[in-house]
Amino acid sequence: MDTGEGTFRVMLRMQVKPGMEDEFERTWAAVGAAVTENRANLGQWLARSHEEPGVYYIASDWVDEPRFRAFEHSGAHVRHRAALQPLRVGGSMTTARIVRFMPGRAVRPNDRRRLDGVRRGLRAALDWLVSGLAHSGMGWYAPPWQWTHPADDDRR
To answer: What residues contact residue 13 under an 8 Å CB cut-off, 6+ apart?
Structure first.
């Protein structure tokens, strides 16, 4: 598992103009590809504060600082910032390097559903494989190149 250690993280705090929160979220999602499509970006998150009205936090992970700094001065980032600027009244940025990651034991409901779907798919594939072996008359140990289709038996 990738631990993320050494990842360069950018953390932003943005104060959004009162009443502009929904527009800010829509705009952030619309222009976010400018960040996530960059080959050095590992992903980003937008979080709305529970304690401070109109405050958002953005975490953006990068493979390293030099590539983030190159993006920071790119035209794509300038356009990204320009789209969000009219919706903000202030903000700040700090950076960090991930030194340790400790995964938790919890599994989110969406992750559990995804795992259940994978299990069902694997089970269906196994059932299909076993039924194919049984119908071929080759028994359990026949390699795929020895499998036959019932219609092949009729033609012999």
So the answer is: 55, 56, 57, 91, 92, 93
25: nearest Cα among 50, 52, 54:
54
pLDDT at 1: 43
Provide the domain count of the chain. 2
The string of pLDDT tens digits covering residues 79-138 is 888 999 999 999 999 999 999 888 887 766 766 666 676 677 777 766 666 666 555 555
Strands 8-16 and 41-48: unpaired
Cα separation, 64 vs 79, whole angstroms? 22
For residues 34 and 58, is the Cβ–Cβ distance under 8 A?
no
List C-alpha distances in Å: 23 to 12, 27, 48, 79: 18, 6, 13, 17
Q: Are residues 60 and 130 in the same domain?
A: no
Quick one: average pLDDT of 140-151?
A: 58
Q: Residue 82 and residue 92: Cα distance in Å, rounded?
A: 16
pTM over 0.85: no
| Domain of 78, in residue numbers | 8-97
